[in-house]
Fold:
Amino acid sequence: MRKPRSERARRSRRGRLPGRQDWSSWPNYQGAAAGFRGYWYPVAFSSQITNKPTGITLLGERIMVMRDRGQVYALKDRCPHRGVPLSYGNQQFPGTVSCVYHGWTFDLKTGDLAAAITDGPNSPICGKVTQPTFETAERLGMVWVFVGDGEEAPPIDEQLPEELRDNPAVVGARIQAREGNWRFAVENGYDEGHAKYLHRTALWRLFKPMPVWNETRIERRGRWIFRVQEKQYWDAEFPGLGRWTGQAWYKKRPPKEVTNIGNTAGHREINPTIAAQEFPGFVSVSMPGVLRVAYPTFIHYEFYVPVDADNHLYVGVMANFASGLKTLPFYAKYLGAVRWLFHGQFSGQDKWMVEVTDAPPERLYRPDDSLLQWRKLAEDVTEQRLAELTEAGLSPADAEPEIVK
Structure:
């Protein structure tokens, strides 16, 4: 029996929203709201870290970083005496930092309590307190900090993109504090569908046509997974709606062949270093949240650094593989246009979306295979790391991140 029209109308207003209600298919990923431990993360430009203590939050942990005689050190940013941040302190003796409250003084290298100034030179508390420390490194003009669970930090160069580590390059970079969970930022960066629509209004792509949609597949190569474009569609006819296109009279003509170096109408000669990498796809991602986008003359990297469950650092790095006088045109282009066009207005559109994303629940579609494959990569790599910790007699529970209030 056909139901009354009023009941059918009421049912239609309820919508039709089946979908994934949580991320329990990837329990490690779901539990990583504050980030994955066991990795190096960029936290500041090297020029910003001086002999004045600076407080940062990384993976939900408060950390003090400072420089002493050229070397950067990092300690837990909480004096064990009364809980005052060490980043409020100062340096009274070389190689140390002193808490502003009572002068508890810690060796920067070991974390040992070297003196309790207000208890005299022979204070019995010395030798009984050791502040947690974190390993640091400097690469690409930035300070990096390793947060683990008691394991030895791997060499930082093993985590950097191989081509950026092994070839001369000039870089332009931006570090920006942003709202939103770091996972939303990674998923936005590796997302297959959004750039063709969201960024169609970006000034960076004003004269570049964009495909309406692609046929893609995900290919894993070592620690990276690549989005491989197999077919590009620059126009599409939507039944009952009409034609939609990523072209316009003022834009360049799209390429005749499918390209996996960039996804617009670039016809420039590919830089030899970039060509030598033989990337199967122009966008790739690796743990713990590093995006790589290969264009003919440069590679753009994004490092998504978890601050806590609700905030992250966006670290954008654009690399041109040149040296000597050949670097000068890149500097001029980056400072004159790219910094505000690409790292500014273009990336600002992504910033907006990450801030307003609210998932799960979520209802995914075909292009979201890129997100599913990223989550699977994160899950598989994390399972392997946890097994290695267990074999070494270590447990993540031994170093749970503190809750930042």
About this structure: Residues 222 and 286 are 9 Å apart (CA to CA). The mean pLDDT is 90.
